[in-house]
């Protein structure tokens, strides 16, 4: 079916792939290793937070009723009966006319119901037997009540959430020294093509160095997969079948680059005609990368990306990253597209939606999508500048500067400024 | 100077810190380990890219002059003299009336000056001794010329750039098996306070588990530093001086959390009065985290963050991340603030600029900044939701929904939808 492929949309292609994916099992890791992993189950608050009434500032714990008459001119004097540091358990219950020095995070003494900060007392720098209270306090003022932030038993993080630094903090607070996480999917990776040299090989006429494998390996790891690199594969179909079958035993998904088009030696394209293979898709309504292919072999998915570096990069973001996130059990498998105003006109006709590499620009609260001026998909030199894909719909007229376009953000925006003149 | 600190702006504080930082030396790493590192020098194209005239598609290499009369109705028939796969060196120069089958990425044969794709020939699926060319070609059509993407000697990536997946690809293409990168800075990390328990210790009255160290450790590693965790430090000033002096020998910068306020046991605050210490700042016009402190000791910077988890988190992004990026020699040390429309009104008065945690929302190309509804800085449970800080200027009236506000984006936007009703 070299020249008679059935074209489907990016959406349909991704759907066909995702519905064939299982989910990884789980494992426990020490919390120190949990950053960037995916929670394998809901996590609960093991205690109230805070788990005792505490002071949110440095000052004096008082009985509010004792401060009713206090003013800057006529401060109320209270007897200081104790100093309570963070970590201490107070030993003295406050009686009428008494106060305790209390530090940020320290436990409120019995009898106290309000806290005044040092700066609102007389002579805040002095440590003395008495304190002058310069304003009245309401019961409960400046007291962090037990459980006011989080009640014991509340869900603090959900299954399928990425564990970020904030998640680490809340898990540590509730004593989760070990965290149940989803096992990282093992993503096999190889390139096809006898023209490929390794990075440390000298160039010879007709051949080029393999750039896709190192690029994809970095992206796989960054997306949360374990990249397993296999040697470049020759273009012999029988050898390829045997090799891929062996590799598939070791991985959850196999990602290849190259060999998907209509060339005489395009082994991944040829493979889709074999009886052992179940084709998921091999022609997608998109530029670049329309021959991007996926098939099932030995019950496992192969995602065969284009060998063109730009198309390979796009194919990773459209198909491989969601695959890794889905296998990882992530809540959000697909990046939400947003809308932005096109920063410069792009009027080149295209029969399919075109994904331009670029970046987001912000001006007075309005989002602009700046296409990289070098639109050549194969241009290796500008891959590193890409932070998003700008989707130009199919058709003959493209989009004008200022038109709203769909944007797929694939990297953290660096909020670069716009290139070229302002609109 | 417990109650008489000099207040400075966030900008000034960061400036005072950054001007005291040196730059790390460099080292060579294998390209497989280079992702996320910072380039230590400019990198150059070692060859032209492509380094030979090549075909960007699967088809036939021809002499354009032979195709002048070709049309769909009257195809020109050419003799096929060779098949050139990617990686091959062509062996036959094209004579008049001849063509070579040529695959994507393959070297152009001598004599050829244009390429026609299979689909524009007669019977594209057949491999035959002749080919029917169904349209005329211009000289140079569909030929990727040597050096057309990048000329030998061009800078392909600059000193101080982060090495992302695209950088990996271009470095691999030019044969950089080893890459000069800036050494990762060693960031010491400890918490102060006897109230802190480790994550695996049971809670006891008055004490809490340490959440800042694990959170900061994850953030330091993510920002490109090597976190070195030291034990919690007691609040004895003399012991602290000795301990910190020892730790500083092992690190480039020391980050602490806690002990910066006006409490009786705030050891980091007390340290700034010691003759060995040179104070950089200890009061910043911001909420939360105004007592965030920095000092030089033994010629090395200490950044003493607030122990309050929300203030600690903010202090990391405002001061520690730029420190790590600066030590790493990164081009962009500071995150550019952007503007967005405030999604909901925030009218609480504040004497200093207030940094609200939140996230960016996009609606029809307009950016909105959505504050997290729980504004309590100490609220550990919502740290994980934060993707940006929304800066509410000092003053009595705050900002209304729809007002433009400054936003500091600290994590990749997940483009969540807005909470609450639409404007």
Description:
The structure is a homodimer of 423-residue chains. Chain A has 6 helices and 22 strands. Chain A is an alpha/beta fold. Chain A folds into 4 domains: 159 residues, MoaB/Mog-like domain (Molybdenum Cofactor Biosythetic Enzyme, Chain A); 57 residues, Molybdopterin biosynthesis moea protein, domain 2; 75 residues, Molybdopterin biosynthesis moea protein, domain 3 (Molybdopterin biosynthesis moeA protein, domain 3), CATH 2.170.190; 72 residues, Beta-clip (Beta Barrel), CATH 2.40.340.10. In chain A, the strands form 6 sheets. In chain A, strands 13-10-14-17-16-15 form a 6-stranded mixed sheet, sandwiched between helices. Chain A has a 5-stranded mixed sheet with strand order 6-3-5-4-7, with no helix packed on it. Chain A has a 5-stranded mixed β-barrel with strand order 18-20-19-21-22. In chain A, a hairpin with a 2-residue loop joins strand 16 and strand 17. The longest helix of chain A has 19 residues. Chain A is elongated and about 95 Å long. The mean pLDDT of chain A is 94. At the A-B interface, helix 2, strand 12, helix 3 and strand 18 of A face helix 2, strand 12, helix 3 and strand 18 of B. Chains A, B: One of its GO terms (cellular component) is cytosol. Chains A, B: It catalyses: adenylyl-molybdopterin + molybdate = Mo-molybdopterin + AMP + H(+). Chains A, B: Catalyzes the insertion of molybdate into adenylated molybdopterin with the concomitant release of AMP.
